[in-house]
Amino acid sequence: MASEKVILGVDDGFFNTKIVQVGKSPRIVQSRARVGRSEQLALNGRVTDISEIEVDGVHYSAGAVNGDNIAFDGYPTSPLNRVIVHHALMSAGYGGHDVEIATGLPIRLYYRPGAVTEKNESLIDKKTQNIMAPASLVKAPNKADRGMATIVRHDVLPEGLAAWFDYIIQFDSDGRMVASDERRSESVAIIDIGGRTTDFAVIESQVVDMARSGSVNVGMLDVHKHVRGEIMNKYDVSELSDAVIDKAVDTGSIKLLGKQIDVSQMVHEAKAAVVRRISNESMRLLGQAATLDNIIFIGGGSMGLREMLEDWFPHQTVADEPVFANARGMAKYMRFVAK
Ligand SMILES: Nc1ncnc2c1ncn2[C@@H]1O[C@H](COP(=O)(O)OP(=O)(O)OP(=O)(O)O)[C@@H](O)[C@H]1O
Ligand SMILES: [Mg+2]
């Protein structure tokens, strides 16, 4: 029996995959996968919530694994991307469903470099096909026993523009989606602080202004990298799992050899260095942003670095649940705009 079609925004970032279905709670799943079986990986620690998926005869594990590095530009069209999206869909409870999804590409990949705003059709096509290509389930993550989701439609959107759709498409008092004419006519900059990159998108007259949009290779992963290096040096440890570092950055504290150690100063310095680089790029691209109507911070980094982003511009805001802004926009786009 065919199940009911579900429409989803799937923001498949380098750090997290965010899934939004309009009217439901958003879900977030780490973007981690590697070649190999989970039995081998279980030796490294606790194994929970792992999928095993085969693509082109290669066996992948996704979920709570120490992942292969996915921070490479080929990631959006790679088998790792397909595996991570399927794992995220199953983990979020969409296994066994027919799903129509929109995913994202960074603006600098979605459009060709140059003065004229021109789409990179071949890359967009390649990404569209890649996620829909065959993959077979070997083992579902915990609790998901309905198999994989079937992706029956896949659209690719530029990431910052997705957040702009989130900004302009709102709900009226009856819960219907409406596009705000006022917001649509504004000039808006979206600053997306992610795991690997921070992206700037300026949207004016409903078009991305490429001259003032751009990307800098700095994000929350740099905070993690810095903190990992400092802890290893200072306390002479040779191995620290991703999960331990995540917690150290979140809480400013780490347990080593049975003792709780305060690393909050290290975390603070790492964040300050990242914020300085984002601020420099912001100055270069936007200046004082005097002609813009609104500057909107989105992405997980806007939460992680929140206290250091205050007062950059008099007319700035942080999006509601900023980590989900792109995924929300993708979901709204699929419901409201897509033909
Ligand atoms: N509520 C939160 N509070 C603090 N930090 C958060 C929060 N949500 C996410 N983060 C942090 O934000 C970072 C990742 O953000 P995000 O999910 O936007 O990145 P991404 O989209 O995967 O990366 P990229 O855009 O570079 O592809 C992680 O370091 C994560 O720990
Ligand atoms: Mg992102």
Your description of this structure?
The chain has 339 residues and is α+β, with helices and mostly antiparallel strands. It has eleven helices and 19 strands. It folds into two domains: 191 residues, ATPase, nucleotide binding domain (Nucleotidyltransferase, domain 5, 2-Layer Sandwich), CATH 3.30.420.40; 98 residues, Nucleotidyltransferase, domain 5 (2-Layer Sandwich), CATH 3.30.420.40. Strands 12, 13, 14, 15, 18 and 19 form a six-stranded mixed β-sheet that branches. Helix 5 crosses helix 11, helix 7 crosses helix 8 and helix 7 runs antiparallel to helix 9. The protein starts with 5 loop residues before the first strand and ends with a helix. The mean pLDDT is 91. The chain binds adenosine-5'-triphosphate (ATP) and magnesium ion (MG). Adenosine-5'-triphosphate binds next to helix 10.
